[in-house]
Every structure is written in structure tokens, then in C-alpha cells.
Amino acid sequence: MLKRLAILGSTGSIGTQTLDVVTQHPDRFSVVALSAGENLHLLIKQARAFKPSLVSIANPKHYKELKESLSDMSIEVLAGPDAAEKVAVLTEADTIVAAMVGFAGLKPTAAAVSAGKEIALANKETLVVAGEMIMKHAAVTGSRILPVDSEHSAIMQCIEGENPDSIEKLIITASGGPFRGMTADDLRKVTPQQALRHPNWSMGNKITIDSASMMNKGLEVIEARWLFNIPSEKIDVVVHPQSIIHSLVQFVDGSVKAQISVPDMRLPIRYALSYPQRLGCSMQRVSLSALRSLTFEEPDMVRFRNLLLARMALKQGGNMPCALNAANEIAVKAFLDGKTDFPGMSEVVEYVLEKTRFSNNASIDVYEETDRIGRQLANNYLNKKEK
Length: 387
Hints:
By secondary structure, the protein is an alpha/beta fold. It has helices spanning 13-24, 40-50, 63-69, 83-88, 106-114, 125-141, 150-159, 184-187, 192-195, 205-213, 215-227, 266-274, 306-316, 320-336, 344-355, 364-386; strands at 3-8, 29-36, 54-57, 76-79, 95-98, 118-121, 145-147, 167-174, 235-239, 245-251, 256-260. Helix 6 (125-141) links the parallel strand 6 and strand 7.
């Protein structure tokens, strides 16, 4: 029986790789809905190839062209900022692939949880911003959330079949990015083009910059806290430049399990879609004899402060991780646009965390207001620096 997928963020890195997995397993998956933000022409191409019953695009100015381009097909077309939420609750979809980038993924993912959908979650910001609320709601509605992030997929594979009480520690690995070992002075000089050249992974621009700044690991610590219901003090981060071990779990008897594979996002995507089964594929295998060495080191939280700031926001709780995320999204865009240097991103985040008013009220409205104010504070800080 085919599993029917609705893909939020189908034109992004995870979305396109998900469609690649679907193409490799036409006997297991079909696509019933596609949702994108701005990439109109790729969305049209995807719709014609996979023939979903519904497509949506966030920017309403693209509605007419999208509708006309698919007029010869039986495809319903939606447009507007709320269109993705309608895709997320589509009755005929068995699994929602939540691959939208950033805060924009929160409301559609929350809608899928409310509908009791199975969710293959790649949008880590959903759990960063509202992890406690989302996981509690999922427990009530019966929504099953399966991680697509390689690190969280690795953890899930390591703890499968284990007693939760036997888990002593989660260990999330980080590549260290392209600037590992650089001095503080050198980090001031790096360019967006250099930051976008990740040594191991092929990812979208935002997550690639987050990886370079170590913010990605900070977000992953927060995500793991809620996804696996593990206190933050039991979640470690270790730099592993080879990106072969994707995460580890240490147990109370001293045993450690690790998930090992080549760095290819299609593996965790495939596992989330086929869980609890594993599907065969032709992707490259790890040759242990060919590996010269696997190395590990502590993350440098002096030069790469984002990991420390993320841990601080998680410890404060409430709406602070939401403020962290809002500030980081603005900071990353500013760096890509040449409006701040590389270390300046963490300076933006730290400023916003200092200025954010704490709230412990868990609701979409509170998170939306915190996100709005966080972005405003970040932009104000950047504008003052330019003058």
C-alpha cells in the first residue's frame, strides 16, 4: 500500500531530496500535495512530474501563473500565507513532510499535529520555538513526530527498543563547519560564499550558515530536549569533522551506541518515511577500513558563541528560544546580504535575548508576538551598527 505524502517546502533542499526518495521507491510512496514559498517554476515542474491533487504557494502574486500552468491537470491550486496550513491537514495525506525553513513552518506543523497526522519533521524551528507545547499536543491528538534531521534520526535509531530510564546522555555530533580552528580575527574576514561551502553536507543556505556558526547545534540541542524528553544537562555536543557518526547515545551501564553512515540526507528522510521498516537503496556505504581516523573535540563556545546562547535560551525557557530563533533568522539574512560580519550574527542574537521580555505563556499568539518583536529588535540593532 502506497504511503501518501504532503510535502511542505517541496522546493527546498529537504523537499527536493524527499522527492528523490519518492522517485527511488514508486511502489512505496505517492505525493498528494506540494507546498512552496517562492520558487514558482520548480513547483510547477514538480507538480507536473508527481501529479498531486493539491499544490500551494505562499506568495499570492504567483497564483495566476501557477493556476494557468497547471490548468490541463486535475490539481487544486491555493496561494497565500495560510495555504500551507490547508496542505498540512489534507485528509488523504498519510504523512506530512514538514520541510519549510524557519519560523514559517510553525503554524502548518502545529495544524498537522492538531489533525493527528504523522509528521516527518525537518523544520527544527517548530520544536525550538514551541517544543513543549507541540509535544504535549501531539500526545493528546496521537500525532507521531519522526525526526528528519540526521542527528535526531541517529538518536532515534540508537534508542529504538531501549528503556528510556537507561539513557544517561545524548551526544549530538557537529562537523565544526568550514571555519573550525580559525582565529577570532580571521572569522571577522570570512565571506558568505566561504560560509556556504560546507565541507561535508549539501544543504540550503540558511542551515549551511547555521552550521558554520554552530547555531545549528544549539537549535538541535533544544529540539532534542523536547523530541526525546531529555533534560538539557543530559545533552552534549561534540565536534566530529568527518560527519560519519551522526549522533551517539550513552547508557547507564557505560555502553554507547552510535549511528554511522555517509553524510546523505536521503538516509534519514527515507527512514522517517518508512519507519519502523528500513528500505533498501543504492546509496554509498561506509567503508570502515578506508576511514583513516575518526576524531572528536570539544566545541569552541568562545569563538562560536551561538551554541552557548542557545543553551542559555533553553535554560531560561518560556519564549526565549523563540526570541533566539527570530534573532538568528534576521542575523543570517544580514550576513548573507553583507550587512554584518560572521561574529556579528551572535552579537545580534545576544542583544535580542537581553532585550526580550520573558513570558512563560505557551501559545501560538505569544510565539508570534515574540517572533515579531525579536525580528524588530534585531533589525534595529543592525540599523544602528550601519550608522
